[in-house]
Amino acid sequence: MTDPLQAVREFILGRNPKLGQVPDELDLIDSRAINSLAFVEFIFLLEELTGEPIDPEDVDLDDFRTLNAIEARFFKRKAAR
């Protein structure tokens, strides 16, 4: 299986090729690497990668701010189960 965090990186780079790379601590919101137009698509990607729906009532913008935050919220929590 493909590394889910790598799929997230590819999604971001696919929409922001000028970045060249996505550092783990890059603020994806402030840098506009994920903008409001791509955010819904990004949620769908995370749902696909985790196999679980994401309830908008249960998310905090900080969960999407960096790759480290995304990994902790969506991938490490699932692995710990």
From TrEMBL:
Query: Which InterPro entries does the annotation name?
Result: ACP-like_sf (IPR036736)
Determine the domain of life of the protein's source.
Bacteria
* Protein's name in the database: Acetyl xylan esterase
